[in-house]
Amino acid sequence: MLLGSGIPQVKCYLNGVKIPRVVRIKTLAVKVIGVVTSVVGGLAAGKEGPMIHSGAVIAAGISQGKSTSMKRDLRIFKYFREDHEKRDFVSGGAAAGVAAAFGAPVGGVLFSLEEGASFWNQSLTWRIFFASVVSTFTLNVILSTYHGHPGELTYAGLLNFGKFDN
């Protein structure tokens, strides 16, 4: 069982430490249920760290095109089943989680660059930036629809410091 935010586990995974079941769908399910119940219950627990871990798990699942937990193999994305490709996807997923949490795509790229990946190249930077922008945009569309103003893309992220007056 993985406890805490999941950021240390993702950072270790990206730096080459093999941690069993760190990017599995069961881990994602438990993480989501735990975060939802702790935030709804009013506990002093943040949702930003688990979003980073959840983004990494989703990206790892997409890169593999299969699930060992559900015993399904879609036989797509076979090219991405190598370890370095999976690691690149996990970097992008972690960056997308940061971008969604704080509404900052560049912050996601910087997090992934500084804290996560040991192996880096320029094309990976652009791919991770694209993933962060898509994540922020998707969250913005969902939040604007949820608040009854579809298409009004003024909701920055899930962490809100309030409105500042001039």
Automatic annotation (TrEMBL):
InterPro entries given for it? Cl-channel/antiporter, Cl-channel_core, ClC
Q: Where does the protein end up?
A: Membrane
Lineage: superkingdom: Eukaryota
Q: What is its main location?
A: membrane
Spans through the membrane: 28-45, 89-112, 124-143
Keyword Oxidoreductase attached: no
Q: What kind of membrane protein is this, topologically?
A: Multi-pass membrane protein
Query: Keywords of this protein's UniProt record, alphabetized?
Result: CBS domain, Membrane, Repeat, Transmembrane, Transmembrane helix
This chain's protein is named Chloride channel protein
